[in-house]
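thread: overnight batch results

M.L. [08:02]
morning all. the overnight job finished for the chain we discussed friday. pasting input first so we're all looking at the same thing
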Amino acid sequence: MAKSLTNFTDSLVIIRDNGNNLITETIVTGYNRDEMYIEVTEGMENVKPGARLRLLIIHPDGVSEFSGTLKYSRQGIYEIPIFGEQTRGARATARYPLNADALIKEMVVNSEKVSLRDPIQVSLENISKSGIFIKSPEIRFINDVVLWIEFNVKGKEMVLNAKVVREQKNNDNSYSYGCQLVFKSGEK
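M.L. [08:03]
and the structure it wrote out:
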């Protein structure tokens, strides 16, 4: 695998064990591009060195999915070498529950940016390498609208741009939306 040109520092990382059980959602505090490892400072206290991990890193240029192994911890810093970036088809991509409150303050409708006077509250249900699933209790969106979704994880503000591609009506009369992630350089 070629080394990533993206800097993962300050990015959200969702770490699961090899059985797909959530270990932690935290922030990457360091990244070594040459040796391909990340550092985190929380959430790994109960993980033994050598444990195999699955990582989903949400960064400014996209979402990357890796395998990893906890190498060691020193003074509260956990080093995780990453390898084997996953490349899967959109529907075959593993989904990671987030269940985070989020706001939509801007969107693009018919190629025109619209800033909202009152932000729309949504719930970010899950995320994958290629998309997100949101729930909107009040507002309906049309397909192809690009939403600018802001949320907070561990005190770190994150923004994702996502194009609505699928609508689902829920039993409680709310709506959920499957959205494809959109990135600044056209990457997926």
